[in-house]
Amino acid sequence: MLPDEFIQALPKAELHLHLEGAVPWELARARSPELPPTPPWWSDGFVFTDFAIDFAQAMRSCFHPVLRTAGDYAEVARLIFAGLAAQNVRYAELSFSPRYALGRGIAAADVARAIKRAAPPGLAVAVFAGLSREVPAGLDDPVVRGILAADELDGLDLHGDERRSGAAPFAAIFAAAGARGLALRAHAGELAGAASVAETLDALAVRRIEHGVTAAGDPALIERLIAEEVTLDLCPTSNVKLGVTPALEAHPIGELHRRGVRVTVSTDDPTIFGCSLAGELRALHYRLGFSLADLAQLQVNAFRVSRMPPDARVAAEREIADLLARAAL
Predict the structure, then answer these.
(1) What is the C-alpha to C-alpha distance for residues 213 and 308, in angstroms, rounded to an integer?
(2) Closest Cα to residue 190, out of 226, 159, 221?
(3) Is residue 228 annotated as a catalytic residue, yes or no?
């Protein structure tokens, strides 16, 4: 079996995917015809120079013209899910900004409901609301109240620039969300160093870190991640295009994986970074030396920390084992 055939056949899970950064470019152009046929960020070697300026502007150009009603969220989700299904993705966690949605009069529950209704058969979907470190919030915040009241939501995320705020101000919100049964995860160790990962683990009691790539430089933190079974949902192309790592070949995902940290691979904002989940796996194999067994283990890792129904998760893991056996023949 050729590597590309194996990667296509491999059951996959996408755990780190922002809806706003995954709006298909064709849809954005249909709403804003002045946008170029191909965004400049897809060019080889392109690196965003400033997270708060040029990256934020790219994100806005992608989703601001599109996300105006609950129906828009459903349309975007349907297109995203079709692309994932074509890559044999079986489980996806899709996050969105409830603050942006509420600013347009759309409740978090309505967004989550619209996203889930767009999921095709065979694709399990969990919806996460994402709060920004850059916007202070408390339990009395209307956005937070909406999150905690939305039965349709599956999880809570914390994203944004960790250089501008620690995680501690959000501790009470995460505690309330955990008590309500929401899955918890948080971004850290992307734009700030390993200390931001440790602070986030301590403050929010999460066991899922989105990115966490800078943890690779801290041996003590690596040991903690292993001991506490923390999962890092890594996004190599995103890290390169945001200047977190200088090149794909310098990305520490291989080192973290070999040292025993539980890692997964995802796309983050695929429309902004011009990547796909299957493409990330191909890059890991052809450019970073991941074996087919390594790629399979990344997917097993992802399924095991997912909120996928247990029977579907077991079936996916069994299918991965069978695929590996066939590939070895």
Answers:
(1) 25
(2) 159
(3) no
Region label for 15, one of left (φ > 0), alpha (ψ between -120 and 50) or beta (otherwise)? alpha
The number of distinct structural domains making up the chain is: 1
What's the burial of 117, exposed, middle or buried (CB within 10 Å: 0-12/13-18/19+)? middle
**pTM higher than 0.85, yes or no?**
yes
Whether 329 has a pLDDT exceeding 80, the answer reads: no
Catalytic residue among 93, 190, 210, 280: 190
What pLDDT is attached to residue 52? 87
Q: Which residue has tokens 């890559």?
A: 87
Residue 132: give its domain's CATH number: 3.20.20.140
What pLDDT digit, counting tens, does each position of 166-203 carry?
999 999 999 999 999 999 999 999 999 999 999 999 99
Residue 229: domain span: 3-327
Query: Going edge to edge, which strands form the sheet with 183-184?
Result: 12-18, 89-96, 124-132, 155-159, 183-184
